[in-house]
Amino acid sequence: MSGQEEGRLHTAVLVGPEGERRQHRKARRRAATRIETTARERRKAQAKARWQAEQAEKRATRYLPAAGEPGPAALRTPGRFRLPKHQDTSATLAGQYPFLAEGGLGSQGVFVGQDLYSGGSFVYDPWVLYQRGLITAPNVVLAGIVGSGKSSLAKSLYTRSLPFGRRVYVPGDPKGEHTPVAEAVGGRAIVLGHGLSNRLNPLDEGHRPSSVSDAEWAMQVASRRRDLIGALAETVLDRPLSPLEHTAIDLALRDAVRSAEVPILPMVVDRILAPGPADDKDGRLAEDGRLAGHALRRLVAGDLQGLFDGPSTVRFDPSLPMVSLDLSRVAENATLISVLMTCSSAWMESALSDPDGGQRWVIYDEAWRLMQYPALLRRMDAQWRLARHFGIANMLIFHKLTDLDNVGDQGSAMRALASSLLANAETRIIYRQEPDQLGATAHALGLTGTEQKLLPGLGTGQGLWRIKDRSFVVQHQLHPAELAAFDTTGRMTGESNGFRGTRSEISGT
User: Fold this and answer.
1) Does residue 51 have a pLDDT over 90?
2) How far apart are CA 460 and CA 164, in angstroms?
3) What per-residue confidence (pLDDT) applies to 53?
4) What is the sign, positive or negative, of the torsion defined by CA atoms of 451, 452, 453, 459?
């Protein structure tokens, strides 16, 4: 085969079907490359255009100088930057700044101890708080189980108030705990009981305020004597007096006062049981007052004699820093305690009503005993309602708030009076409570869930203070001398037998 023929054959092979496919593939690759190149060039052009636009925008933007604009329109001026004040509640602000602590009650008053939340000193004085408008009722309710330290707190509050010119009256001390305190501060404890020479005449005129005229004083004494004799009769009878019994007592008391300069209870009893002809014209007065007369006779010739059947051998001196009526010798006789408390309350009323008497604490210890008697409960309620008028602060001490549920029947007048004592006290101090008392305590005082959970875990001397709508957890602090004077565990620790040592020595640790 010649060369020309061979070349034509090779050309035929290249332009055959296989050669056409190879040409198509190359054409497609070249087209794809051109498309990718075009797209890449377009993206680069767009990015360059954006960069150029940003640069142009930066060049066109005007920035303030570091020192601010010159002239009166400058952003930085010599004046201070001011914002309007914003006020809100602590509950709302706590969401932004939760670490908030109570600011306390100020520094004026009696030092109590340490506020366990804020770490600062806790100071309390009902008269100071009333003057500042923080409370409207100066009365105090103190509750805590045995051994929680409530008695020491009460004694600290009133003894630390003495340097501020306050006085202390304890109209009834069933356990005699306040007797050594009264003697230590220069006061007096009047001890009454069988076998003692002390007598208390319930018909004494009592302390006369200097601002009262003769006519006013005579009316006050007559009213107080009439109320007291009626209250004594109701206490012994354990029921209210009838109108006929009131008449018999009034006439007998009037005759006794007329016949003696200082009337005594036996005179009244004799005239109730055997009225004079001038009073008993129809012969029925003796029968009308027979039950009341025999009830009062128990105080002068029965099982309660020896305490009220003669002139007073003790005198209530309102000028003393502290006066306490020690009833520990008659603690086993509930009726006698109520009678003594009724007499002592009336005895002190004239001193409490003296506008020149100053500011005074009136301490009702073991209140669960006292509130069982309607006559005594009414006297307590009257003193609590008139506390601001008299300038006194009443303190009611008991173990648990459910003690109020034991006063009278549900819905009775006595239950309402007992509840009003709590309502008229804006300072409630709750020491450790048993778990079964938490619900009733929280309901009576309106405690929050957090406050309720605190109560069973409180240590000795630690208490939850509710002062109106504010709450504090306070550790009561005692001076060693106070601890020795206020200690009520002497018989359990052996100190009453003459052994006095440190607490570690007594416990053997």
Assistant:
1) yes
2) 27
3) 92
4) positive
Q: pTM for this structure? A: 0.69
Two structure tokens written together for 479: 């001076």
CB 13, CB 19: distance < 8 Å: yes
Give dist(CA 88, CA 373) in Å, integer: 48
In 3D space, the residue among 110, 53, 77, 117 whose CA is nearest the CA of residue 462 turns out to be 117
Q: What is the pLDDT of residues 376-419, one digit of tens each?
A: 777 777 777 777 888 888 888 887 776 666 666 666 777 777 77
User: How many Cα atoms sit within 13 Å of 153 on the Cβ side?
Assistant: 31
Helix (H) / strand (E) element for 268: namely helix 265-273
Mean pLDDT, the chain, integer = 78
pLDDT in tens, 204-230: 877 777 777 888 888 888 888 888 888
DSSP secondary structure letters along 227-243: HHHHHHHHHHHTSPPPH
Alpha carbon dihedral 414, 420, 421, 425, in 10-degree steps, equals: 170
The alpha carbon of residue 395 and the mean position of all alpha carbons in its chain are separated, in whole angstroms, by: 10
Q: How far is CA 82 from CA 73, 125, 490, 492, in A?
A: 17, 40, 65, 67
Write down the pLDDT at residue 304: 67
Which helix (DSSP H) or strand (DSSP E) does residue 112 occupy? Answer: strand 110-115
Sheet with 167-173, strands from edge to edge, namely 121-124, 110-115, 470-476, 462-467, 427-430, 140-143, 392-398, 360-364, 167-173, 322-326, 188-191
For tokens 């819905």, what's the residue?
411
In degrees to the nearest 10, what's the CA dihedral of 468, 470, 472, 476? Answer: -30
Alpha-helical segments (H) within 111-149:
126-131
CA distances in angstroms from 436 to 202, 439, 456, listed in the order given: 42, 7, 10
Q: Sign of the C-alpha dihedral, residues 115, 119, 123, 126?
A: negative
Would you give the DSSP letter of residue 121?
A: E
Q: How confident is the model at residue 463 (pLDDT cuts 50, 70, 90)?
A: confident
Count CB-CB contacts under 10 A for residue 490: 14
Strand pairing of 462-467 and 470-476? antiparallel
Q: Which residues pair with 462 in a beta bridge?
A: 475
Distance CA 224, CA 289 (A): 20
* Sign of the C-alpha dihedral computed for residues 486, 487, 491 and 497 taken in this order: negative
Of the candidates 10, 39, 173, 143, the residue with the CA atom closest to the CA atom of residue 466: 143
Q: Which residues contact 27 (CB under 8 A, 6 or more apart)?
A: none
What are the angstrom distances between the C-alpha of 146 and each of 159, 399, 420?
Answer: 21, 7, 25
Which residues are within 8 A (CB) of 411 and not within 5 positions of it... i.e. 6 or more apart? none
Exposure string of 131-163, with b = 16+ CB inside 10 Å and e = fewer, is eeeebebbbbbbbbbeebbbbbbbbbbbbbbbe
Measured from the Cβ of residue 109, the count of other Cβ atoms closer than 10 Å reads 19
